[in-house]
Amino acid sequence: SMNREEIKGLLPHREPMLLVDELELGQDGTAHGKYRVRGDEFFLQGHFPGNPVVPGVILCEILAQSTCVLLADTMDDSVTPYFSGLNNVKFKHPVKPGDTVETECEITRAKGVFYFASGKGFVDGKLCVSADFSFALVKKD
Questions:
Q1: Residue 67: φ, ψ to 5°
Q2: Rounded Cα gap, residues 23 and 106, in angstroms
Q3: Tens-place pLDDT, residues 16-25
């Protein structure tokens, strides 16, 4: 199990866009992450006043960041992971302040610098988001 500081050694994301608090690699090739929604995040300030809900795009980012740890052996300081596609995205239940999003993600295939993955996010065992997505490891200029 990795904590936030250890995750920073693997991912290029930093506050306020680091959206994984804990990560654990499953023996079956899956990544299991956790993010606690504190309530003071920038993306909740206007989404929605009086009824804060984590935006869907942020839930997708949480899934992607949880997945990138599976590429730790492939990534180094010379590359950045960029989203290249989102498919079959479904939002089932809203995620609110105080919730802990638990992710389960896996790489489904790779082709060159492109990696294809699927992920699910749960709160208290209830499915909140699912998606298939891809990203590319792009060399820095």
A1: -75, -35
A2: 13
A3: 999 999 999 9
CB burial string 15-31: b at 16+ within 10 A, e below: eeeebbbbbeeeeeebb
Q: Dihedral, CA atoms, 20, 25, 29, 33, nearest 10 degrees? A: -30
Yes or no: say if 121 and 62 are a contact pair by the CB < 8 Å rule: yes
In contact, 63 and 52? CB cutoff 8 Å: no
Catalytic site residues? 47
Please state the length of the chain: 141
pTM > 0.85: yes or no: yes
**Nearest to residue 133, comparing CAs of 92, 88, 93?**
88
**Amino acid residing at 125:** G
Mean pLDDT, to the nearest integer, of 77-96?
95
